Amino acid sequence: MKRGVFLFTVFFLLLTGSALALRIVVLYPAASPILRALGIPDREVVGVTRHDRVYPGAIKVGSHLRPNLELIRALAPDLLIVGSRRAFPEETARKFSARIFRYDPRTLQEILTNIKALGEILGRRQAAEALVEKLSAILSRIKPLPRPVTVIYEVSATPLKVAGARSIVNDLIRVAGGRNLVTVPRKHVLISPEKVLALAPEVYIYQVGPMNRHPIPPKKRPYFRGLRSRILRVEELEFARPGLNAFSAALKLNHMFLSCVR
Amino acid sequence: MNWLELRNFEVRQGDFRLRIPELHLSAGEMVAVLGPNGSGKSTLLSALAGLKTYRGTLRLAGNELHTLSERERYRRLSYLPQSGRLGLPFEVFYVVLTGRYPLLSGRHYTEADHRATERLLRLFDLEDLRHRLFGELSGGERQRVLLARALNREAPVLLLDEPFNAVDLRHQHLFVRHLRDYVRRKKGLCVTVLHDLSLAVKYFDRFLLLKEGTLRADLRRAELSETLLGEVMDVAVKFVEHGGEMLLSIDLMKKEEN
Amino acid sequence: MGSSLAPPPKPGNRRELLALGGLLCLVSLVFVLAVSHGAVPLKIFHLDETGRRILFEVRLPRVLLAGLTGAALALAGLYFQYVMQNPLADAFTTGASASSALGAVLALLVAGEILVLPAALAGALLGLAAVFHIASLRGRLLPVTMLLAGIVVNTFASAAISLLKFLADESVASIVFWLMGGFQNATYARVGLLAGAVFASALYGLLRAPALDLTAFDDETALSSGVPLYRLRRELLFTGALLTAVSVAFSGIIGFVGLIVPHLLRLIGFLRAGVLVPFVVLFGAAFMMLADLLARTLLPQGQELPVGVLTSTLGGLFFLYLLLKRKRELYELA
Question: The pTM is what?
Answer without folding.
Answer: 0.86
